[in-house]
Amino acid sequence: MPDKEKDRDIAVNRRAFHDYFIDEKFEAGMALTGSEVKSMRGGRANLRDGFIRIDGSEAWLENVHISPYAQANLLNHDPLRPRKLLLHRKEISTLIGKVRQKRYTLIPLRMYFSRNHAKVEIGLARGKRQYDKREAIAERDAKREIARAVRRG
Questions:
Q1: Number of folded domains that form the chain
Q2: What is the C-alpha separation between 86 and 144, in angstroms, rounded?
Q3: Mind listing the pLDDT tens digit for each residue in 19-64?
Q4: The pTM is what?
Q5: Domain containing residue 50
Q6: Is 133 contained in some domain?
Q7: What is the rounded distance in angstroms from the CA atom of residue 142 to the CA atom of residue 32?
Q8: Do residues 107 and 52 lie in contact, with contact meaning Cβ atoms separated by under 8 Å?
């Protein structure tokens, strides 16, 4: 089965690609409650201000909003609670080493279901300066103009 059919995106952090250079990507599982999973299946998650915090030998997904599930009554979850990421100890130690390098951070890029397991794609990122953002926009506009010229003939 191709990757496109088995992975169903829940949320994508498009802002991350504008604000950061993404050097590497990692995949991690998430420890969730039942109401969070039901809400995510409805596509009610937001990654915009999220980040990953590494605390000792555990990784935590912070500041990611998963809306409360409407049909869950008393057992509903807190929308902004920290969620534990399921990574191997070796992966966490690799991430710790890379984050300690100059100006690196860990951000969530997308959330998706892969074979009925909720996953998050983590990006090892460096922050862009303002001139980097302008350069990326100018490059994208130039490519668009070239494509238009080729279509016109």
A1: 1
A2: 40
A3: 888 989 999 999 988 888 888 888 888 888 899 999 888 999 999 9
A4: 0.78
A5: 3-128
A6: no
A7: 43
A8: yes
Q: Which residues of 81-108 are buried (b: 16+ CB within 10 A; e: fewer)?
A: eebebbbeeebbeebeeeeeeeebebbb
The answer to whether the CB of 79 falls within 8 A of the CB of 48 is no
Q: Which of 96, 97, 104, 105 has its CA nearest to residue 57? A: 96
What is the rounded CA–CA span in Å between residue 96 and residue 105? 10
User: What gap in Å lies between CA 2 and CA 8, rounded to an integer?
Assistant: 12
What's the CA gap between 150 and 153, in Å, rounded? 5
The Cα-based distances of 48 to 21, 32, 56, 65, 128 in angstroms read: 16, 19, 25, 9, 16
